[in-house]
């Protein structure tokens, strides 16, 4: 089924329950077809096209999007919705997305098949079950590249074994305000985990939102990796809570309310600025410094991203697209926060 | 142990060079290791920096003027050089073809892990799955015996036997 792209935020993020610190989670499985060279070596699209046909039959409820037919803007929207990776937006071919937009299957990412399940207010175990169910369906017809010693074989050896990357987004403003976050990062790396920016590899942390994920994919069962990650997550949440105790000062109260004021009244907002103020307001809500109805940190954090903002830009109004975007972002914030 | 070159600082790095024929081992401190290998081997570096690691391996093989430069994986044509350039293997067969380098790469990027113990695709690997199940049960059996839970151990022993018998009939 070839679907029409949903240009709005996905239901799972729109209906996200407001939680302190913990945001969305994701499970990603990397798989390759036995006997077919990895994606970057493929000379033509033949194998991936055949794979696409097979997957379409096996997953009839999913809509197929061919990236070739999409504009740069459409691809960027899919990245911001976390349905495809930035790398896939540049070079990918086909992606299957389910109706709820909480499962996507990229064909022709770095590996032939990348299955991912994502959501908020759902455990990593439950997400693993979802991704695993798709994996089970696919392997009925597809023979995967698998080795007794190294498990699922992937293009990059950092993904072999389970081929599984589990990740959780966390809002860590108090840890980010101190140097503690760097110390955590160094320690996590030693144990095979990592903390990075919201859009994954190489992306900058924005608005104190970090992605905690496993780096080691070999030598542990999937559920063990998930358990370890969940324990680390709880530990980080605990540390963030403790660090927040020291943040309950007049300075924080001032910063929170200034940020709210800026979001409600500014006429120009860069992404970085909007993310920072949203982060402050979220912290203020968690600390009960302010009260706001309908504040949806996760969805709004997505709505201030460049492609989502571009959807609202009136290009004729301003000379420079950059200023038009900053103006549209500010207008969105005023609208959402009931400012003037 | 002292570094074999400077004989002053403690040895922190074990260097293994060459092929199965011209094998050479050294225990060095970080500074001497860097000098001897023409790369910056810094222990605080992210161990997952696959590019650096692959470059280091390629550098080692060049040093010995071994046969690797022209050798290409017969399935996909990838060479050690192209793998270094892309940071990616060319196909699943590369893992076999470059088997001399794979264990070191895997050990480094997977924090010393060397063996998959997670999910197995059910389709092609019924026997492997059986083998794994038996191994897991045998480990549990040993734990039960250790803690002297003999009744539970007996149940597990029977389960293992059952699996082994079932496997034999297949």
TrEMBL record, chain A:
PANTHER family per the UniProt record, alphabetical: ARGININE KINASE 1-RELATED, ARGININE OR CREATINE KINASE
GO BP annotations of the record are: phosphocreatine biosynthetic process
Give the source species. Jeotgalicoccus halotolerans
Q: Where does ATP bind?
A: 24-28, 82, 114, 165-169, 196-201
Question: Cross-referenced CDD domains, in alphabetical order?
Answer: bacterial_phosphagen_kinase
- Residues forming the Phosphagen kinase C-terminal domain are 21-243
The yes or no answer to whether the keyword Membrane is present is: no
Q: Which UniProt keywords apply?
A: ATP-binding, Kinase, Nucleotide-binding, Transferase
Superkingdom as given in the UniProt entry: Bacteria
Q: Which PROSITE patterns match?
A: PHOSPHAGEN_KINASE, PHOSPHAGEN_KINASE_C
Show the GO cellular component annotation of the record.
Answer: extracellular space
Question: Which InterPro entries does this UniProt record tie to the protein?
Answer: Arg_Kinase, ATP-guanido_PTrfase, ATP-guanido_PTrfase_AS, ATP-guanido_PTrfase_cat, Gln_synth/guanido_kin_cat_dom
Name the chain's protein.
Protein arginine kinase
Q: Mention one GO molecular function.
A: creatine kinase activity
Which family does the record claim for this protein? Answer: Belongs to the ATP:guanido phosphotransferase family.
TrEMBL record, chain B:
Enumerate the InterPro entries for this protein: UVR_dom (IPR001943), UVR_dom_sf (IPR036876), YacH (IPR025542)
What keywords tag this UniProt record? Kinase, Transferase
Instruction: Tell whether Transferase is among the UniProt keywords.
Output: yes
> Is Transferase a UniProt keyword of this protein?
yes
List the molecular function annotations (GO) for this entry.
cadmium ion binding; cobalt ion binding; copper ion binding; kinase activity; zinc ion binding
Q: Name one GO biological process term.
A: stress response to cadmium ion
Pfam families, per the entry: UVR
Q: Where is the UVR domain?
A: 131-166
Q: Which domain of life is it from?
A: Bacteria
Write down what this protein is called.
Answer: Protein arginine kinase activator
């Amino acid at each position: 089924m070839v679907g029409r792209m949903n240009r709005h935020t996905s239901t799972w993020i729109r209906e996200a329950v407001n939680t302190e610190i913990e945001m969305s989670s994701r499970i990603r499985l990397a798989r390759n077809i036995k006997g077919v060279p990895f994606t970057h070596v493929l000379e033509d699209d033949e194998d991936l096209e055949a794979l696409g046909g097979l997957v379409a039959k096996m997953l009839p409820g999913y809509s197929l999007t061919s990236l070739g037919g999409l504009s740069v803007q459409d691809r960027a929207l899919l990245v911001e919705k976390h349905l495809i990776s930035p790398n896939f937006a540049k070079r990918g071919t086909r992606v299957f997305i389910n109706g709820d937009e909480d499962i996507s299957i990229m064909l022709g990412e770095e590996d032939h098949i990348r299955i991912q399940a994502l959501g908020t207010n759902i455990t990593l175990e439950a997400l693993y079950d979802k991704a695993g169910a798709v994996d089970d369906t696919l392997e009925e017809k597809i023979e995967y590249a698998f080795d007794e010693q190294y498990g699922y074989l992937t293009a990059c050896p950092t993904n072999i074994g389970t081929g599984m990357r589990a990740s959780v987004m966390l809002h860590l403003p108090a840890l980010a305000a101190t140097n503690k976050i760097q110390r955590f990062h160094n320690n996590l790396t030693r144990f095979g985990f990592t903390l990075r920016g919201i859009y994954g590899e190489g992306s900058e942390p924005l608005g104190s939102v970090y992605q905690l994920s496993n780096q080691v994919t070999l030598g542990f069962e999937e559920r063990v990796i998930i358990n370890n990650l969940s324990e680390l997550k709880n530990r980080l949440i605990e540390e963030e809570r403790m660090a927040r105790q020291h943040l309950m000062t007049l300075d924080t109260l001032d910063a929170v309310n200034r940020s709210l004021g800026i979001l409600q009244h500014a006429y120009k907002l860069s992404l970085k600025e909007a993310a920072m103020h949203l982060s402050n307001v979220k912290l203020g809500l968690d600390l009960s410094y302010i009260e706001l109805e309908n504040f949806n940190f996760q969805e709004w954090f997505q709505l201030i991203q460049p492609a989502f903002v571009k959807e609202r830009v009136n290009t004729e109004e301003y000379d420079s697209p950059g200023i038009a975007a900053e103006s549209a972002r500010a207008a969105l914030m005023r609208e959402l926060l009931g400012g003037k | 142990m002292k570094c074999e070159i400077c004989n002053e600082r403690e040895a922190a790095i074990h260097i293994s060079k060459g092929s199965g024929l011209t094998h050479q081992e050294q225990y060095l401190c970080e500074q001497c290791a860097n000098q001897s290998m023409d790369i910056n081997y810094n222990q605080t570096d992210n161990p997952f920096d696959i590019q650096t690691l692959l470059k280091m391996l390629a550098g080692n093989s060049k040093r010995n003027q071994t046969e690797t430069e022209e050798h290409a994986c017969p399935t996909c044509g990838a060479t050690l050089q192209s793998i270094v350039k892309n940071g990616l293997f060319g196909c699943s067969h590369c893992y076999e073809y470059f088997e001399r380098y794979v264990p070191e790469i895997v050990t480094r990027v997977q924090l010393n892990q060397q063996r998959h113990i997670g999910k197995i695709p059910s389709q092609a690997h019924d026997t492997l799955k059986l083998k794994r199940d038996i191994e897991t049960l045998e480990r549990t059996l040993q734990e039960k015996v250790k803690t002297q839970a003999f009744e539970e151990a007996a149940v597990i022993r029977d389960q293992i036997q059952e699996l082994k018998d079932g496997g034999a009939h297949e």
